[in-house]
Every structure is written in structure tokens, then in C-alpha cells.
Write a structure and sequence with these properties.
Radius of gyration: 23 Å
Shape: globular
Helix content: 25-40%
Bound molecules: 1-O-phosphono-alpha-D-glucopyranose
Largest sheet: 5 strands, mixed
Distance between the termini: 18 Å
Structural class: alpha+beta
Length: 577
């Protein structure tokens, strides 16, 4: 219903291509980076590729897993071409604690979009350089001449399944905690500028995120077992201790540290290369136990009550081991950050009652509609050198309280995914409105990396936010997404997104077919009143009903998409009521 928004979306959809070509910097005023892409960007750019050019993404994913080290950290220097990682010869040990979170998210979406469950069983190598013990030590026996692939005792290059890689990444993260039994922040997390709390900092924000990963990984492993007809999987012998240890062995920070150290020491140089077999049910149960423990621990320890029944989660511990966020009577003294809220919601740790409280607090302390919506944090009024260089940026610039598009979009995505549709829509809309308001944003068309305190759009084009914006519009607002390879249409549109005739439409590619899906909602009802009542494939004058209705959405089997849909544009009409 808004042609400006449609045109804006064309540019947003184009941005991921630019980012893939030019990396994270390119125009003269992109004052960071040298055109490269980092580990996080590598995985997130796969998300938009999956929606636009899914063809080779499977190969790319498999190759990217070759950048994971045996201790769950990963190569951070990315070479030319796919899957080329470069050993850090200087041995600069920087570990970003969020890095292990993204690969699983990408794999999960890949499987949903393609149905290629078998990829989980495919094998990839591991990356090897001098850095060991999660970047805390150097392997004196390793020389660059040995090559940057992990070898086993007999000198052979070792390869393990993607399941094994995912377990290595997520379990090692789980065990690396600080004094509050929260995952350590290390060199930083998503927020690259939280880089000055290496020793004692903890990221509550990404502890939420990993908790979500563990539950989904457990679900995915069970689906894999069913789909492939297997009940056991092989993993490297050394990893066994991290999988099987029961709660008594890891419920305190100290015990977690001991287990992790013992594992990392066992894989510091060459590894055994031997595998042991575990029942999928046992691994899934152990992942769920860990996630459940985290959920209770985080909800119990990190919640902050605000005024008028509002509240939110603390997102970090600083380098002095203190909780970073706080409530205060005086609004100017409140400290609130968006990141923790995003992942508590996305990771399923926050229950709906708390989500409602969070959204109210975010609206009070972080929302500025005229400059793009949700800011990253409130003004701490302090150069907080025991947390990160972000506090050296003026308030409202970059990672210090700007409306940082990537996190604002992830906030929207998280809200939609938990059924908070109006709230998610508001976050997306504010970003689009400000981008489109040239007098304020003064930028090229598209979404910027961030809006500064005056609402000016900074760093045009090259932001991961574009992938996420497109993905959220498509898979959450329009609700068109893969589900185990099938096509699921589960719209969460709001009344004003429909045009004067009560129609809204989207074009996409799925399972190699081109689709144009029109949603018909003559009453222009909001999401809660617009469940799918019928979906038809339109061929000239002929129409045939397609898919199975499931709780207000429609699911079309992949085989139907492949057999019933033609080579040209397929017109689908979805009636809402
Ligand atoms: C940039 C980096 C991204 C990082 C973010 C916050 O965001 O590319 O890896 O997480 O800053 O520090 P982007 O360019 O995606 O907007």
C-alpha cells in the first residue's frame, strides 16, 4: 500500500550484492575496514543469498565450516575465494564470543529453505594455526609449513560432520563462563566496540542467544535422525566429555572452566582422530538440559524491574565484573541496552509476559521515531573504559547509542518470531520512514548502517542490516519461508500494509521456482484477523487449490512446488480472513 516503501525495498534487496562484492567498506567515508569481510559477515551474508541465489549456498556453508578450530573458536582472516582461511602468523589472539552463534543460524535456515537435511552428516575439516586453548595459549609444535588444517596423531587431515562442528562451537561457548556463570565476553561480541573487558567481561546478551541455539540444535538433530533413519552419530572421542557431562559436573563457573580446559588441552596439537558414537537422543537431551539450566539462571539473575510494570534484561558484565545495566528513578540515570533484549526474545529465554514489559521499556528509553527508531543503548554519560571503545564515540554515534540498523532489525525479527507483530512492525517502519525522509537522512536510497543523533544515515549500502531487513520482511511479515524444505506461508501483515484493494504481494524464488504471491485481505484486517483460509495456484483462467492449512497458515509440500509449479512465474493467491 505504499509505493515509496516498495521502491525502498528494491534498494534494500540490492544492498547484499554490494556487500558481497565490496565487503564492509568501499566509499571514501567508510572509514573502517579495508574492504574485507569478517567471520560474522560471511555467515550472515549467506542468509540473503539463501533467499535470492540459493544454488551454491550448501557448498559455501560446508567450506565455511573449515574455518572452525577444534576449540570452538575460528579463523578470523578470510582469504580469497570460498573456504580459504588464513593462519594468523602474528598469533594475535582475539576471540569474538558471538562468532560460534551464527553458523548454526545459517545452517538451520539453509535446511528449512532446501530440505537438505543430509548436509548435517557431511564432513568438513577444521582450521589449525598456532592459537590454542581458545586463544589463550600458543601451540609451540605447530609451524605454518604444516598447513592450516587440523591433523590427527597419524598425520592425516581430520574431517568431522557438520553436526560435530556445531557441537564443538556451541558446547565450547557454553563452558567458557565468567564469575557470574555467564559466557565470557572475551574480545567482544556482535558489538565489536565492546573490546575492553577481555578478562572479566561477560555477555549476557549472547548467553541468551546460545541458549536458543541449543534448543534448536537438539530439535534439528532429532529431525535429522528421523529423516536419515539413524539413531547414533559419531563424534571425535575428545569431545565426548563435553557432551556427556551431567549437570553436577558443570553447574558452577569453576566446574565449567575445568571441563573446558581439559577438553581444549586434549585438542591443542594433534588430535586422536578416533570417534565415539552417541545416541542422538542422548545428545539432544544433554543440549536441552543445558539450555534449560541457562534459561532459569538468566531469568533468575539478570532481570531488572523498571517503573510502571516495565522491565528488561541486563546485557553485560563489565571489566570490573559489575552488572552494566540498571534501573533508576530518574530516566537520565537509567542504563538499558537493546542487544540483550533482542537475544532474550529471539532465543526464547524471555516469556511473553516479560517481552511485553521489555517492549514498553524499550519504547520509553530507546525509541526515537524521528531518527529511525530503537537506539542501541541509553546515554551512559561516561567513558566506560572497563567495557569498550564504544564509550569513546560521542553518544548517538556508531555502537554507542546510534539507531544501529542491524540490531534494530534483529529486534524486529525477534518480536515477529514471538508473535509481537505490531511491535516488530514499528521497529521496521521507523527505519524505513527515516531512510526515506531525505531531509533528515541525507543518504542514498536503502538502509544505512546507522542513523546518527540527527537522524543522518551513515555508511550507505554496506551493512548486514539489509540482509536481515529483507529476510524479516519476507519470512516474518509476509511469512513466506521454508520449513524443512516445504513452503510455509504464515503472514503477519498489519492492515496498513495492504493497498486500497486490500492486496499485498511479494516475489521470490523457492525450490528453483519463481513465485509471485498475492495476499488478499479485502477487510484490511490486522494480522490477528487475517489467517490464511485458502491458497490457489492461478494458471490463466484456471485455479487449483494448493497446500495444507495448518493453524492459520498454509504449508505446500516441496514435491508439490517442484511438480505442480511451472518454469515461468507462478502466480499464487492467498486469501486471508
Ligand atoms: C558492522 C560489522 C558487524 C558488527 C557491527 C557491530 O555492522 O560489519 O560485523 O557486528 O558492525 O559492531 P554492519 O556493517 O553489518 O552494519
Amino acid at each position: 500500500g505504499n509505493s515509496d516503501f516498495d521502491r525502498f525495498m528494491s534498494w534494500v534487496t540490492f544492498q547484499p550484492f554490494l556487500r558481497r562484492i565490496y565487503g564492509c567498506s568501499f566509499l571514501p567515508y567508510h572509514d573502517y575496514g579495508r574492504g574485507g569481510r569478517g567471520w560474522r559477515d560471511l555467515w550472515q551474508d549467506c542468509l540473503s543469498l539463501l533467499l535470492m541465489e540459493p544454488g551454491d549456498v550448501g557448498k559455501m556453508i560446508l567450506a565455511n565450516f573449515g574455518g572452525v578450530r577444534m576449540d570452538g573458536t575460528n579463523a578470523t582472516i578470510i582469504g580469497d575465494g570460498i573456504g580459504n582461511f588464513i593462519a594468523d602468523r602474528n598469533g594475535i589472539p582475539r576471540v569474538w564470543m558471538d562468532h560460534a552463534f551464527w553458523p548454526f543460524m545459517t545452517v538451520r535456515m539453509y535446511i528449512d529453505q532446501t530440505g537438505d537435511m543430509a548436509i548435517l552428516g557431511k564432513k568438513a575439516g577444521y582450521f589449525k594455526d598456532a592459537l590454542v586453548m581458545r586463544g589463550m595459549d600458543r601451540d609451540q609444535d605447530w609451524e605454518p609449513e604444516q598447513g592450516s588444517t587440523q591433523r590427527s596423531a597419524d598425520g592425516a587431515e581430520y574431517a568431522g560432520s557438520l553436526i560435530e562442528h556445531l557441537l564443538v562451537e556451541n558446547l565450547c561457548a557454553f563452558y567458557e563462563v565468567g564469575a557470574h556463570n555467564i559466557m565470557r565476553l572475551r574480545g567482544a561480541d556482535w558489538n565489536d566496540a565492546l573490546d575492553m573487558a577481555e578478562e572479566k567481561g561477560e555477555s549476557v546478551a549472547f548467553s541468551f542467544a546460545y541458549a536458543g541455539n541449543m534448543v534448536w540444535l537438539a530439535d534439528l538433530l532429532e529431525s535429522y535422525g528421523k529423516a536419515e533413519g539413524v539413531s547414533d552419530i559419531e563424534v571425535l572421542k575428545e569431545l565426548g566429555q563435553l557432551v556427556t557431562a551431567g549437570k553436577d559436573a558443570w553447574d558452577t563457573a569453576e566446574k565449567k572452566g575445568q571441563l573446558l580446559d581439559s577438553y581444549c588441552a586434549s585438542v591443542r596439537s594433534r588430535i586422536s582422530g578416533e570417534t565415539v558414537s552417541f545416541a542422538i537422543s542422548e545428545i539432544a537431551q544433554s543440549l536441552r538440559e543445558k539450555a534449560q539450566w541457562m534459561k532459569e539462571h538468566l531469568n533468575g539473575q539478570e532481570w531488572i524491574d523498571g517503573k510502571d510494570g516495565e522491565g528488561w534484561f541486563n546485557s553485560y558484565y563489565d571489566g570490573s565484573s559489575r552488572q552494566v545495566e540498571r534501573y533508576a528513578e530518574n530516566d537520565a540515570d537509567v542504563r538499558m541496552m537493546l542487544t540483550g533484549q533482542v537475544f532474550a526474545i529471539m532465543g526464547g529465554v524471555a516469556e511473553p509476559e516479560r517481552i511485553a514489559k521489555i517492549t514498553k521499556a524499550a519504547d520509553r528509553y530507546l525509541y526515537r521515531q524521528e531518527i529511525g527508531g530503537y537506539r542501541l543503548n541509553t546515554d551512559f554519560g561516561e567513558v566506560k573504559s572497563d567495557l569498550g571503545r564504544m564509550f569513546g564515540f560521542a553518544y548517538g554515534e556508531k555502537e554507542n547509542g546510534a539507531v544501529f540498523s542491524h540490531m534494530a532489525v534483529m529486534y524486529a525479527n525477534a518480536l515477529y518470531s514471538r508473535g509481537f507483530v505490531r511491535e516488530g512492525y514499528q521497529a521496521l517502519k521507523a527505519l524505513a520512514d527515516t531512510s526515506l525522509d531525505f531531509e533528515t537522512s541525507r543518504m542514498y536510497p536503502g538502509i544505512p548502517e546507522y542513523f546518527n543523533p540527527q537522524g543522518r544515515g551513515m555508511y550507505s549500502y554496506l551493512t548486514g542490516a539489509a540482509s536481515w531487513y529483507m529476510m524479516t520482511m519476507l519470512t516474518e511479515a509476509f511469512g513466506v519461508k521454508g520449513r524443512g524444505g516445504d513452503l510455509l506461508i504464515a503472514p503477519k501483515l498489519v492492515g496498513e500494509q495492504f493497498d486500497a484493494d486490500g492486496k499485498a504481494a511479494v516475489s521470490l524464488e523457492f525450490a528453483g521456482k519463481k513465485l509471485h504471491i498475492t495476499f488478499e485481505n479485502p477487510a484490511k484486517a490486522d494480522f490477528d484477523g487475517c489467517k490464511v483460509i485458502k491458497a490457489v495456484l492461478v494458471e490463466g483462467a484456471a485455479e487449483q487449490e494448493i497446500g495444507q492449512l495448518e493453524d492459520g497458515c498454509v504449508r505446500i509440500a516441496r514435491s508439490d512446488v517442484q511438480e505442480k509449479f511451472g518454469g515461468d512465474l507462478n502466480e499464487i493467491r492467498v486469501s486471508l480472513g
